[in-house]
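Worked problem 6 (solution included).
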Amino acid sequence: MNKRGLSHIDWVISFGVFVIFLLLLFIWFGPSLTTEYSEEYLGGIASKGFKDASYHEVFRYPVFSEPIIGATNVAFRFILPEAFIGQDIERFSMVDIAGNNIDKRGIDGSNYFVFRDDFFVPGVVNEYSLFYSEFFDVPAVSPGWAIGHETKSNTTLGVNERLYGFSERRFNDLVLLDYDDFKKELKYPKTRNVGVYVYDSVDFSTLLYNYNVSEPTENDNVYVVSWSDVLINEDGSIDQITVLVKTW
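Solution. The predicted structure is:
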């Protein structure tokens, strides 16, 4: 065999040794190249992501209306806060002082919120609460009056209160996602697992809502985060809840 043939064999052998060396490197060091997440980190991003995806901000305005004595038309109006001009009527809900829903409501062309209360008391201050959330979808009924012929009254808005809590509507939209999209919505690593549970009150007695595609096994290292919070309903009422998040 000539020298040229020997050189070719040497090159093949050298290349083979190099490939084997690379494979051994991946076998030895491959696991260490995989992204590692601490338990606290996974729990933190899952908790924050869950709030961002299923909580809502609700604004409450007290409304005070004093109709004149002898008034027979039962519709009232007040100018909407500037921040809410242009919003759909379904984003608002309204209740009287007893918590009864005022479903006869609308917004006229001059950005006035108009509502009808069939049980108002003339000559005294009638109190209501107006709620707004961009995630509300509260059906409204036509008040059934000619705009501009509302009851003569002094109707004013009080100082707003900001509420923040769990939204049943947002969570119901969230659980429609498949598992990968669910984790993406929470900004959670695709290669790791997460489950969320919402319980009534603070004693984990009744499970109200949950999203858990799979449960961890006995070999999984599970990290649990839980906290007490509130569920804000579309009528503005508030229920106490406990949220539990599992990551592994």
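Discussion: The radius of gyration is 30 Å.
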